[in-house]
Amino acid sequence: MNIEQLREYCIGKKGVTEEFPFDEVTLVFKVMGKMFALSGLERIPPQVNLKCDPEWAIELREEYNGTIISGFHMSKKHWNTVEIHQLPNNFIIELIDHSYDLVVKGLTKKIKIEWEKLE
Question: Among 15, 49, 71, 100, which is 20 to 30 Å from 82 by CA?
Fold first, then answer.
């Protein structure tokens, strides 16, 4: 997967916006205002930070040593940094969906009702 494919997939999810809140090279994807993915556009190799269940995050880091590491500049417990060109697209999509779902699950009741109303 390349960064354009990553962007296309993330922006297509319900309630997602993209922005550059930190600088002009760190693309952030949010669902209903909550971050679920971010990518430094100038990072080589291309990477994305994704939220992850803490136990699964550890398993992934062990299984994909070097390709999936603890989140760069993020909570090491809840975020992984993933080299997107090293893994199959369907697996990257699974990791993006997992991150998105975790964030949606944590939305407040009021915001979740707004999210559910979206097409």
Answer: 15
